[in-house]
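Lecture notes, part 5. Sequence design as translation. It can be helpful to think of inverse folding as translation between two languages: the language of shapes and the language of residues. The source text, in structure tokens, appears below.
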């Protein structure tokens, strides 16, 4: 759960609030009771910081995943090719047979 910084536009009260990402931002200032709260996102705000940290870790595993994916993809592609080839071959067989039967006739 990220920490959000809130700043009251009315009285300048600033505080932090743990909220789930899906939670609605607060509007009402607990100090003056006016709906002048602003949720501050940026410079060192927990959520951004965490985000970049995530990115770094993610990046590492991402390249690893990428490499693995490539391997898998190649394997899958090879398999797909085989499948396609097999399919094409069996599909083309009747045609080829016709051509074959015709070919000797021509020759
Ligand atoms: Zn206030």
């Amino acid at each position: 759960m990220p920490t959000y910084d809130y700043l009251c536009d009315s009285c300048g009260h600033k505080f932090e609030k743990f909220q789930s990402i899906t939670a609605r931002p607060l509007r009402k200032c607990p100090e003056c009771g006016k709906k002048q709260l602003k949720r501050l996102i940026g410079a060192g705000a927990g959520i951004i910081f965490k985000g970049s940290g995530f990115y770094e870790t993610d990046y590492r595993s991402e390249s690893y995943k990428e490499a693995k994916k490539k391997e898998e993809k190649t394997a899958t592609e090879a398999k797909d090719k085989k499948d396609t080839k097999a399919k094409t071959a069996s599909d083309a067989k009747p045609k080829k047979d016709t051509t074959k039967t015709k070919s000797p006739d021509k020759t």
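The translated text above is only one of many valid answers, since several sequences can fold into similar shapes. Residues 3-39 form one domain.
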